[in-house]
Amino acid sequence: MVRDITHPTLSQRCPVPLATQAPNQKAAMPNRRFPAPSTVSPAARAFLTDAQPLTMMDISPGPLAQRRREIYDVAAPGGKRLAATLGVQTEEAEVAGVPVQWITPANLRHNHTLLYFFGGGHITGSPDEDLSITARLAHQMGARVCAPHYRLAPEHPFPAARQDGVAVYTALAAKGRIALAGESAGANLVLALLSQTPTMPKAVALLSPWCDLTHQGDTITTLDGIDPSLDLTHQLQHMARGYAGGRALSDPEISPLFAPVDGFPPTIITTGTRDLLLSDAARLSTKLRAAGVTVDLRVFEGMWHVFEYYPDLPEADLSTQGIADFLTHHLT
User: Which of the following CATH numbers is that of domain 35-331: 3.40.50.1820, 3.40.50.1100, 3.60.140.10, 3.30.70.1020?
Assistant: First the structure.
């Protein structure tokens, strides 16, 4: 997921996706946006109406470092404000030598743990920037959330992030009941982790999973230029190559859609009808069901890639509440 650097609230920000912020770049694609549907919230209609065409994602060291700073400087304060509003506390710590952020709700009532992996195309992101999701999940579940600061590509290509995830999961799973969740690239890491551990979590939540880095799905074409937050040619392809570090994108370890899924735990998948990766979610759901896995696929009207990231969207709150209820059901 390529972040919108004007994140804090839909009412405060100009809804210009992150990739448009490079001032001297031409638009990556024609604007194929359709009018916002009347069937979504006013906040969602405003976002879709005002969204701008996306531009090139530059992952060379200088521009990428600047982009990461820009994202953090806007997204992190917004997430922290939401956490404060909900009475959620954060604490930096280490688990198995990996830095993590613990998110603890004021209404803590369960001793199980949600291990959550942030998104950002494997090249951007941090737990602070995802507090708009993790703080809400902690509050809605009444449980602690652990969000690892896993290593980012291209400085640390595959398998660095997965190694960090496996280390944290192994340590936490040894202590009690646990569920896994992640959005976009973070959902990719969840799936990659499941293929590496003999001990399954109680449940899994995948928000707009990016699980086919070869980008063969139908909506990669049909929704390119329609999703207001994500683009194939100038964003996903660059991020995929940076993460793979020279490995084939079809490798099941890079694209876990192609890996075995037998024995996976109950899984909830969320996406939207304008999510560029809707086909990833659909194909993954079909594969899991064929393997006998319990799957709840929820497709939200008019929503785009990881819409749960935007804290003022009623649809985001509805989705995270459904995720919280699903995970809690299987954890208790």
Answer: 3.40.50.1820
Please report the pLDDT score of residue 17 as a whole number: 35
Q: Are 306 and 183 in contact (CB under 8 A)?
A: yes
Residues in a beta bridge with 144: 113
Angle between helical axes of 131-141 and 314-331 (0-180°, round to 10): 50
- Calculate mean pLDDT across residues 93-106: 98
> Taking 60 as the threshold, does the pLDDT of residue 21 lie above it?
no
Q: Kindly list the strands in the beta sheet with 89-95, ordered across the sheet, starting from the edge strand earlier in the chain.
A: 89-95, 98-104, 144-148, 113-117, 178-183, 204-207, 267-272, 295-300
Give the model's pLDDT for residue 33: 77
Q: Which two tokens stand for residue 149?
A: 């600061």
Pure H helices in 181-260: 185-194, 218-222, 237-244
**What is the distance between the alpha carbons of residues 5 and 75, in angstroms, rounded to a whole number?**
6
Q: Which helix (H) or strand (E) holds 306?
A: none
Read off the pLDDT of each residue in 129-134 and give the average, rounded to a whole number. 97
β-bridge mates for residue 115, sequence order: 146, 180
